[in-house]
User: Fold these one by one.
Assistant:
Number 1:
Amino acid sequence: MQDFEYCRAASVEQVQAWLRDGVDSKLLAGGQSLLGAMKLGLMSTERLIDLQDVAALRGCSAPARGELVLGAMQSHASLARHEVLKQFAPGLAYLASHIADEQVRSQGTLGGSLANADPAACWPAGMLALNATLATDRREIAADDFFTGFFGTALEPDELLCRVQLRRPRRFAYAKFEQAASRFALVGVAVAQWDDGSVRVALTGSANGVLRLPEFEQALNCEFSPQALRGLSVDEALMSSDVHGEADYRAHLAGVLAARVVQQALEMKHDD
Ligand SMILES: Cc1cc2nc3c(=O)[nH]c(=O)nc-3n(C[C@H](O)[C@H](O)[C@H](O)COP(=O)(O)OP(=O)(O)OC[C@H]3O[C@@H](n4cnc5c(N)ncnc54)[C@H](O)[C@@H]3O)c2cc1C
């Protein structure tokens, strides 16, 4: 691991100043991906800017009826048990509670997961299905535009992800088939439906990062039931292939999980 300077920011303004002063810097959230990559020599930097003291990046609140705001620095564990989130979208609290193990959940953050955009991660599928808006220190980015491929996002190198905003769904659920050791998704499917009947479906575990499944969405727009997905399949050319699972196996799993997650969404209790 190369030497680097460690700085602890107290405010968004301090983060911005350090990101723009010409020193090569990286943002540190919980370190669950970044520090591993640095230890392996896959990434290096002259300076780490620790975000944990920036209070403006925390919070889980519903400031207006039908709207939820989540701070980028909320840990997975804190969101998994947050009453506001459980009431707003219980399936999203469930998603958080099934990330990794307790240790990773207590350090890993929503913002770190979204900025990292691991193609096997859970939050990106949830946020893409929920049509979230990702607010940075300078603009708002729709989830459809935020994820740009394998570990790719629309964030500029000096851009700070601050919070995520959501419109309340009528139903939301997420299911994944876990890689046994890490609990990363071999395949994961998230589905959201709103009061006007519109549906979005997002898939994680594809070769090129999180993506939507338009054919599945069309079928569920007509009839929100697992039966509506009969005959539909996920193109195996979209899926990753590695020691944990071949692409055709993952594509098959995606179809099975999509039907399962729709059933889960129908059964999940949502407060009105
Ligand atoms: C053993 C293990 C198992 C895991 N299992 C799962 C799993 O089952 N499901 C799952 O979804 N994930 C899983 N993860 C990933 C984990 O949940 C973390 O969310 C992820 O590693 C990001 O970690 P972090 O929040 O600590 O961010 P960091 O590692 O600190 O940062 C990750 C990247 O995001 C950037 N970044 C961080 N915050 C911001 C911000 N606010 N604005 C802009 N850029 C930012 C950093 O600069 C860095 O490039 C696992 C990780 C480990 C180590």
Number 2:
Amino acid sequence: MKKQSRSFRNVSENPCNMCMPLGGIIAFKGIQGSMTLLHGSQGCATYMRRTISEHYSEPIDVASSSLNEKGTVFGGEANLKKGLENVCLLYQPRIIGVLTTCLAETIGEDIQRITADYKLEKQRPELPIINVPTPGYGGSHSEGYWHTVKKITAGLAKETPKHSKLNLIIPHISAADIRELKRLLRLMTIEFTLLPDYSDTLDAPYAETYQKIPSGGTSIEDIATMPGAPATIELGITVEEGVSPGKYLENEFGVPLYRLPLPVGIENTNLFFHTLKEITGKEIPEEIQRERGRLLDGMFDSHKHNFQGKAVIFGEPEQVFSATKLCLENGVTPKIMATGSRTRKIDQLLAEELKKFEHVDQETVILSDTDFSIIMEKCRQMGVNLAIGHSEGKILTEREGISLVRYGFPVHDRVGGQRLLSVGYQGTLIFLDRITNTLLENKYKNYRARMFEKYYPLPSPAECELKAR
Ligand code: SF4
């Protein structure tokens, strides 16, 4: 019988997630000409700038209303208005995202009213300001990301005549993954609006002059016309319906919604292309079919090595789900699936997938809203030898000797987190190679020592004593 476990504790040690507004910042980075302001203390903004910058290796500008003791007691309205004005003067943004922190939400700031007053006072009626409540205690960065994408959609989408551009709403994936999705859609000659597109803003080419707001991102005009699209594909099956931007477009404007998993792994990627074909009537081109064939070939090649893998997979729910499927398809046994998010949907989705593989079903643990002290304990109990997830999991290597395949966010102890490719047939094969090669590296690093231990075991202390006599 499959075991499921959930961590209900009052404390968290080495959390498996970042805090909620951080996800909101990333979502706003995918909107053309946008600037984000955090209503809260300076420290929150500093931590988030640093974390995002370490992963994406880009300068990250995030404004802060710098709430201090006075603002906390008497309200932060003056700070927020001054912050908004400074952002307008320094950056001339086309849109501002205001995200709240724990402090602003705890003192009960009425952000909607304050930003509306600001626009009136400064005569900026046309400036879109999107407010998103994102207290750190309200959820993980993944939840912050989805809340923000939904608010952006709800704030900018307008009744529009029908057109042929497909909506593609993505979870928080690497910049390379976004570029790959765009390449695949172009190969299929499909017109699309991808939301949010931070592939250039968070992974910009080298430039001689510094741009305060990097170019790129989904344009406000494109978001405004999303209600006229023939359909929305939302790569977010673990997302609760209440925060789904695609569900919003379906409910408010009748745009048909297809909720799919990330196209990682053969089955998920097949589903992605079949859905594109179903919506647009376009054939899957030869080039993509050849990429699929190469993935199948690679799966045969690596399968014989993967059976040794007993994996812990952790990170954002969407990534955990797709990486688990990839492991199941390729002979790696997923032992522990863990996320710092509170979504309950992933438990149910993973349980359904695991049911199809009876040999792993019996000995699997799913952890939500968890941290690395719990993950580490479970790894010890279940003999895990491979970790797949973000850099916070390096603690598993340092303390338990479990090799880590870096996947997701943040990757701060290696370069190139923004360039890790995992989606589509090509991306899947690259990801699978990384997993298999990690297992092989482990094998070749340790097999002589293990063989020696097996065939020439060291004598026990008692035997040593006997020999000494
Ligand atoms: S948890 Fe709250 S206080 Fe801490 S960084 Fe996040 S928003 Fe700021």
